[in-house]
Amino acid sequence: MKKILITSLMTFTVLFNLNAQQWIDDSSCNNKASAIVNEAITSLANLEHLMAVGMAKAALVVDKNCECAKLVLAAAASNNADWGSRSEKLKQINVASLSNVEKAWYTLLSTSNENFEEAAKKALNNNPNSALINWLNVGQDMEKNEAFALKFPLLAAGAYNTMAYGYARDGDYEKAYKALDYSMRLHDGPNALDSKAEIAEMEGDYQKAFDNQVKAFDYAWFASPYQPKLAIYWRNLNKENLTKGLKDAQSSFQEAIISQDLEEWKKYITDDMMLTSGDSSLTEFYTQNEERFLTKRNFTWDSFDLRDFDIDFSPDMNTAIVKFYANGAYTFNDSQEKIDYSTRASAVWISTDSGWKMVHANWAPFGGSGIPK
Fold first, then answer.
1. Fewest CB within 10 angstroms: 6, 179, 272, 315, which?
2. Residue 305, domain member (yes or no)
3. 9 has a pLDDT exceeding 60
4. Does residue 80 belong to any structural domain of this protein?
């Protein structure tokens, strides 16, 4: 049934003239600014707020009295009462110049979260044919998004985006991708590509996720909101190599400690976050530094080997927990007594601009002795 519905929606849309539907028909702006503002609202509806802000500012260049552009700026701003950015922007609007739909939007932007749903329903009763007010009543409800797409097919890019996630949650990824393809036919923006990437991640296809996220990132790469997920997908795609690299780094780090190779050791730490450690002597945790690292020991290592690595990554792939076991032996310098060494350990590594760095390690005896106190 849903397959028939989405096909019907897509077929129905082509019957409409491209200029037949707008978010706001009666605007406080001149014709040129009004066209820009309607595009800005499309960006808002597709979660591309930075683009919406740029368009709103462009509309104000064309028409300095375009109050609807100021509404877009307020809508893109946070509604956190403690920050006050939206409320300050709303104060700059000449409410008397607003059209009826614009006034309804102004009222909704001034409404608290807990009272928004009731206010939105009231606004819809008063403006049943307004695309914008209809959209503000849709939310994440699948049936409401489908109804919006039928009533306002040329403005339904955001609705198809929302429906795509519903299809994906039901396990119908083919239908989800088709919905996003249609969203992209209606609106040329990066958010649908970001959604394709997220749905590919849900499907477990990190190659597809990465490929689509690159396209979203490429729209405007500097300070892009799509960069963090790009790194997540790339790291998941290359998890096997990352895991091997961390195993090698952990082994090299331990070899640097045993040989007291300061320069090698420093390759694996960062000045941004000090390295804290808990030794297998079970003494208190401490912060590692160069002086402590070079402290003369009262024993000499005879052998030291790491084994049985197990590595877990945080969901954002910025942190790794490296778990492993160690076996070896050391001899006390004075007594020449030889001790069998056996421990379990874990280490926390974080991703930085200069590679993966260790920020914490914890060791404990396991089937043998740790290091002496």
1. 315
2. yes
3. no
4. yes
β-bridge pairing 355-365 and 276-278: parallel
Rounded average pLDDT over 327-331: 97
Distance CA 62, CA 273 (A): 49
Q: What is the CATH number of the domain that holds 54?
A: 1.25.40.10
> What phi, psi does 199 have (nearest 5°)?
-70, -35
pLDDT at 201 over 80: yes
Least confident of 1-5, 101-105, 136-140: 1-5
Which own/partner contact pairs does 101-104 have at CB distance under 8 Å and 24+ positions apart?
Answer: 101/24, 101/25, 101/26, 101/127, 101/130, 101/132, 101/133, 102/24, 102/27, 102/28, 102/67, 102/68, 102/71, 104/130, 104/133
Residue 371 lies in a domain: no
Specify the 3-state DSSP secondary structure of 243.
helix
- Determine, yes or no, domain membership for 294: yes
Average pLDDT, the chain: 93
What is the rounded CA–CA span in Å between residue 75 and residue 87? 10
Same domain for 244 and 228? no
Domain span at 23: 2-237
Q: Quick check: 213 and 225 in contact, CB under 8 A?
A: no
Confidence at residue 16, expressed as pLDDT on a 0 to 100 scale: 45
Distance from C-alpha of 209 to C-alpha of 306, rounded to nearest angstrom: 35
pLDDT of residue 283: 94
Please check whether residues 69 and 213 belong to one and the same domain. Answer: yes
Spell out a b/e string for 60-74, using b for 16 or more CB atoms within 10 Å of the CB, else e.
bebbeebbbbbbbbb
Instruction: Please provide the DSSP assignment of 76-133 as one string.
Output: HS---TTT-HHHHHHHTS-GGG--HHHHHHHHHHTS-HHHHHHHHHHHHHH-TT-HHH
> Does residue 12 carry a pLDDT above 90?
no
Tell me what pLDDT residue 38 has.
Answer: 97
